[in-house]
Structure prediction request, 826 residues.
Amino acid sequence: MEITTKKITSLRVEHITKRFPGVLASDDISLSIGEGEILALVGENGAGKTTLMNILMGLYQPDEGRIIINGEEVRFRSPNDAFAAGLGMVHQQYMLVPNMTVLENIALGYKQAWSLFKLDLAMVRERIEEISKKYGLHVDPDAFIWQLSVGEQQRVELVKTLCLGARFLILDEPTSALTPQETDELIILLKRMASELSIIFISHKLQEVKDLSDTITILRHGAVVFQGNTTDHSPSDIAALMTGHEVELPLNEEPPCDGEIVLNIKDLKVKSDRGFLALNKLNLSIRSGEIVGLAGVSGNGQRELAEAINGLRKVESGEILFYGEDLANRSPHHVIEAGMGYIPEERNTEGIVPSFSIKENLILKDASHPEFSKHTFLRNKEIDKNATDLRIKFDIRSPNISIAAGSLSGGNIQKVILAREISRKPKFLIAVYPIRGLDLGAAEFIHRQLLEKRKEGIGILLVSEELDEILDLSDRVAVIFKGEIQQVLNRKDANRRSLGILMAGVKDDQNI
Amino acid sequence: MNFIVNILSLAVPFSVALLIASLGEMFNQRAGIFNLGCEGVMAMGAFLGMLIPYSIGHGGATPGVYNFLGLLVAMGVGALFGIFFGFVVVTFRAPQGIAGIGLQMFGVGTAGTLFRHFIGGTQSVLGIDNIDIPLLSKIPILGPIFFTHNILVYLAFLFVPVAWYILFKTPWGLRVRAVGTNPRAADSIGIQVNRVRFQALAVGGALAGLAGAYLSLCQAKMFSDEIIAGRGFIAVALVYFGHWNPVKIMWGALLFSFAQALQLAIQGQGINFPYEFAVMLPYVMVIVVLAFSRESQLLGPTALGKPFNREKRT
Prediction:
């Protein structure tokens, strides 16, 4: 296909259908975008947004339907064809090689700079400068990707896509890892860029959809359920269309509790995988019957904190007092026996054993307790009964209790973990990003469960980067930044703006 | 002094087979392929490298063109073995460790069988001779260590900067590093991941074949079943030792060869030193080095050993 530099004045997708074994991923989808338009593609997880975009980028071949650019039908056999036509995509997981520099990452796709024996890096550098200037996107070409923050990496992705000649941008959930400030900046930037190119913007954060897009297309189960102008609809209308029913995430509206302090972390120092201090004299206390939200951009020590409490990471110094007992550097087994419940960040690799069945995963922590084993043999009847009960109570949607837990959807895996942790009657619960990547229905269920546990008098540490989740559930909000608690706010004092500023590392109240 | 010069002038040619093979393995691993079959490919290279001058060149008694042909055939067949391995682990996504062990056994077994069929017993060839480089070889100490070897020794060390340049300064090297570290990223900007992996396997196989032929044509000047003697596995270990960097790999190859030469020299002096102990020294060094080189993980090919499947989500 010939490389052109003509503007893309219209892009239409007509009757696209794509089947995977057992799934209709795209069901007769049509949409169209004009010059300088921003289209928001909205839908729950598994609604088929990413499949559709992968078809547009030539990564998947559609079974039926066609793509028309500037009135001419095109056919993309590989990503190269899509680039040649002027399409560029920023994927949700950034497509960068961590041990190469920004310059090399961009050179990897910039074929004009290639010859057999030489890579013309000077040419790539020039191109980066040109694009940076044009769009006001600053990047350091000589930095290694692994040295960059998530926000910077995204900027690299944008610069890369533009350097490779994109005149039509597809952004797959671009704000999912950004701070509120970075999100605002991105939205302003994208609006400015829309004067030059058209954008498809995938999101399920409805406020951003409202702020940014001109038109909106909602997908459900692979089919278009709604198309229209963004201005005509409120976020709650869109949410209802997206899920097919009215969803209201539960709120914590109880008065702040005054239970005794059950988890008291004092001057905790913990190292990260790379050997830096991830937690630097962190202090935090949580009462029984209260939810403390730990707000922060991921990578500021949340993971290390959760792992240190659960005995999964070495504590350099400091104390973790749990009902008066110091848990620092105790074994995970000891922490579990002390009554700690843990919903880990990586649900597939830390929360379950994917190849084990649901019923086995539900007793992972209690397999050697007399309830489930006798004379070193497992008591299968009890295990089955336990699983059958929990499956109903926690609405785990699966054909039976014997299939591999890893084959379930993210929401159902999270329900398995939640069922296991809650049914053990913990004295405390640590929930790390409990609804990350889940659709609204599953999120609602998990939030209701957490609030119910709170009512029963259990203390909960909720780690999240979603401010809505934190604000909905927390009694108090602690903001973590570079391994320290910036400030702890009561619910009534916390709002998106104040949290956002604290999360970005600004501590001084005068600036708020 | 003389003793040390002798050891060093032995160590340099000893290191060549290891160096060539591990540079080949480095290209494999940089592209994300863990090839334990190196030993087998080297065995094939050693056999074919000798077979050509022995059979066509009448025992290698004729000019070097047959030796040269032997080297070429060894490289060509090595490349074919690499491509064959690619079908197994890239196309069919077989587990690389097991497939590599299979390739090793296949190569060593095939070379041995063909050797018995075509040659039979211990037969030597003239092979490729050492050349004393005029003037340079007369330099005291340095001369005998560096300038009294055969042409392949010089070429192998010349190949170190060349490999470095290829890996870090050419578009192909960039693609190799990308598909070995984040194949999904490479795929998303239009690089054909599996094609690059096949290319790297062909290059790695050719180098392993050449390393084997070096052993039979330059070092032993004969073939036997045990000619490779675990060098293929040492080469794999050297790649880790050298953190996937040609220059560090060269130092590793020299270090191990020095130990090997030292062991021979000690025996030659008639010192009562347990011979088995010396033989195992290089292997112990590999284990120690691997145990203490953990920080390398950030720089290495993180997709090493993982087959690429575009439609599979992790």
Summary: Chain A has three domains: 10-243, 249-339+426-512, 346-425. The first helix of chain A runs from residue 49 to 56. DSSP finds 17 helices and 22 strands in chain A.
